[in-house]
Design brief:
Helix content is 43%, strand content 11%. With 389 residues, it is α/β, with parallel strands linked by helices. The protein has one domain: TIM Barrel (Alpha-Beta Barrel). An 8-stranded parallel β-sheet has the order 4-11-10-9-8-7-6-5. It has a two-stranded antiparallel sheet with strand order 1-12. α15 packs across α17 and α16 packs across α17.
Length: 389
């Protein structure tokens, strides 16, 4: 077993152990992948302010996200098809997150269902909702999340239509995967993954199949999903879902100051500054570059979280110091999951926690809640500000 010291180590092992179509699904963006790349590289423009001769003892990364205690302000982001990265992947990730003391967010497009995950954990997890045209199904999905005692609803707003994801189309991505000769030959080189998949009954989108009329197999499911994402999604729908849910509501996919202000008006508990990991609008600003303007615009009126591009504990610290109250990791934990299953998710969290704790100490802070912009050296032009004529 190789020595794992950072997320890049997990990524290398992940690439060797998971079929190409699922590696490509995680490690790619839409169209030219400009935004996908800049989500990561823009963090390098922010430098850290080192402080010396300060008391570094008694450090704590403990905080809260939407009123819930967390061991560090890092949540596992909703990632579709997680159960195809490793057999029963959502269950493994949820159990690792629970043991570590951070939130896990289950995607609507998960392989393991809400009920599958709820049966395997002892504490509430979060559920991510896509808005579909079938409102009866949405009502049922919200009721199922309530029955599973999910402690927050994460409403994704930036997927009314699907971005141009060329690799997924070329690979014939699906659940279960499309068995072309090319894919079969590639899977034959991943025996660990194959054995895991042979040992589970969960190979399809179990939040959907069996819960929607006339969707009983993958052929009809593909047709249904292509038609079901609601292109007419509006702020009125957000208000309806907030009332229907009745619990903590997090709005994910905010990348614009005006949208952030509208989100405050909905009464939501938090927003996530996010561009869907660069998988939707290619050419959009990176999430970290938009974060300062959005923080300045909404102030303390709503809790601001951030995702897209987090690959280290230093990235986490930079986002928190800019004003975010929490961040989400997606690819970073998927690398661990595909590489080593539940143990790999735990390793990813341990790596990020150690990097966050160590960097916090060098920056002269004992508590993660004390981080602020004084801990950073940020270029004056590091903004995503939209100036009206």
């Amino acid at each position: 077993m190789p020595i794992i010291t950072n997320i890049t180590d997990l990524k290398a092992l992940y690439r060797r152990r998971v079929p190409k179509m699922f590696y490509d699904y995680a490690e790619s963006g839409s169209w030219s992948e400009q935004t996908f790349r800049e989500n990561v590289t823009d963090f390098a423009d922010i430098h850290l302010r080192q402080k010396v001769a300060v008391d570094m003892s008694g450090r704590s990364t403990a905080s809260t996200m939407v009123g819930q205690d967390v061991a560090m302000p890092v949540a596992l982001a909703p990632v579709g098809l997680t159960g195809m990265q490793s057999a029963d992947g959502e269950i493994k990730a949820a159990k690792a997150a629970e043991a570590f003391g951070v939130p896990f967010t289950l995607s609507t497009m998960s392989i393991c269902s809400i009920e599958d995950v709820a049966a395997e954990v002892t504490k509430p997890f979060w559920f991510q909702l896509y808005v579909m045209k079938d409102r009866d199904y949405i009502n049922d999905l919200i009721d199922r999340a309530k029955a599973a005692k999910c402690s927050a609803l994460v409403l994704t707003l930036d997927l009314q239509i699907l971005g141009q994801r060329h690799k997924d189309v070329k690979n014939g991505l699906g659940a279960p995967p499309k068995l072309t000769l090319k894919n079969i030959l590639n899977m034959a080189t991943k025996p660990r993954w194959v054995m895991g998949m042979l040992g589970t009954k969960r190979h399809e989108f179990r939040n959907i199949v069996g819960h929607v009329n006339n969707v009983e197999n993958m052929g009809t499911l593909a047709e249904w999903t292509a038609k079901q994402f609601d292109e007419k999604l509006s702020w009125d729908d957000v208000a309806w879902i907030k009332e229907r849910w009745g619990g903590p509501l997090i709005l994910k996919g905010i990348l614009d100051v005006e949208d952030a202000r509208r989100a405050v008006e909905t009464g939501a508990d938090a927003i996530v500054v996010s561009n869907h990991g660069g998988r939707q609008l290619d050419g959009a600003m990176s999430a970290i570059r938009m974060l300062p303007d959005i923080i300045d615009a909404v102030g303390d009126r709503i809790e601001v979280h951030m995702d897209s591009g987090i690959r280290s504990g230093q990235d986490v610290l930079k986002a928190l110091a800019l004003g975010a109250k929490g961040v989400y990791i997606g690819r970073a934990y998927i690398y661990g999951l595909g590489a080593m299953g539940q143990e790999g998710v735990t390793k990813a969290l341990e790596v990020i926690h150690k990097e966050l704790d160590t960097t916090m100490a060098f920056c002269g802070r004992q508590k993660v809640t004390e981080l602020n912009r004084e801990n950073l050296l940020v270029p004056e032009d590091f903004r995503g500000r939209f100036e009206r004529a």
